[in-house]
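User: Some background: our group keeps a shared notebook of sequences we're curious about, and every so often someone picks one and asks for a predicted structure to add to the entry. Today it's my turn. The entry only has the sequence so far, pasted here. Could you supply the structure so I can complete it?
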Amino acid sequence: MGVPTVSRRVDSAATTSAAAESTRRRSQGVLTPYLFLAPYLVLFCIFVLVPAFFGLYISLHDWDYLLPNKPFVGLRNYINLFDPESSTFEPFWQSMVATGKFTLFSVPPLIVIPLGIALILNEKFPGRNIFRAIYFAPFVLGIAVIGVLWRFLLDANVGLVNFVLGKLGLPDDTPWLSAEPWVWVTLVGVTVWWTLGFNAVIYLAGLQDIPSDLYDAAKVDGAGRWARFRYVTLPGLRQVLLFVIVITILASANMFGQSYLITQGAPGNQTQTALMYIANEGLQAFRMGNAAAMSYFLALALAIVSIVNFLLLRHRED
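Assistant: Of course. Here's the predicted structure to add to the notebook entry:
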C-alpha cells in the first residue's frame, strides 16, 4: 500500500513542478517583448512624453526662461489666439494662412508626381536602378544644404536660374525670393524637387506588393492601361496612398527650413509659416507660454486633419 502512495506523491510533485515550469516560461514569454522594447520606451518617455507634458505645463504660464517668476495664467495663452485685441492674434493667423497656402500648393504635386514616377520606375528598362537612385538622391541632402543651394541659384541678381533664362531670351529679373507669387513657386518647387523621391519610393514598394496575376487577369478581360490603373493599381495602393497623404500633409504643415533659409519669410511675413513664427515667438521674443500654446493648437489641427483623411479614405474603401 505504501508504494502506490509514494508513486502518487512523486507524480503529483512532478506535475506541480511541470506546471510551475510552464508558468515560468509563459511569464518569460510575456516579458520578453517588453525587454526588447525597453530601450525605445525609455527614450520615448524621456524625449517625447516628458517634453509633451512639460510643454503643456509651460503653455499654462507666462513663461520667460530668463526671469525667475513664471506666473500661472491658465488658458489665457490659448484664448489670446482667438482674441483680435491680443498681440499674437494677427501674426499667428497670418502664419497659419501661409502654412495653409504652402500645404495646399505642395501636397497635390507631392502625391501625383511621385506616383507617376513610381509607375515608370516600376517598369523594366535598362538603367532602372540608376534612375531610382537619381530621384531619391536629393532627399538625402539636409535642409541646410538645400536652403543655401537654392537661395544662391535663385538669387535675382547673381543666380544661375535667371542667368540661364536670360540666355534663352526669357525674362532674367524674376524675383524668386522677394515677391509673390514667385516666392510660392520657389518654396513649392524646391520642396517637390527635394522630397518627391521619398514618396516615389513608398509608392514603388506598394506597387511591387500588388500581385501580377491581377494585371494579367485584367489584360485577359481586355482592360487597357487606364482601366488597369483605375481598377487594379489604385485599389492596391489604397493603404499606401493614405500613408503618403497623411505624412505629406504633416510634413508640409510643419515646413520651416525652406521658408527660413530660402525666402526668410519675405515678402514681409507672407511666407512666414506657423512653425517659423512659433520659433521666433519662443526663442527670440522669449514668450515660451505663447509659443507652447500655438504649438499645441497646431498639433491639434493636424491631428484633426489626419483623422478626417483616414476616415474619408476608409469610408471610400468600405
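Suggested note for the entry: The chain has a mean pLDDT of 88. The domain at 79-317 is CATH 1.10.3720.10 (MetI-like fold).
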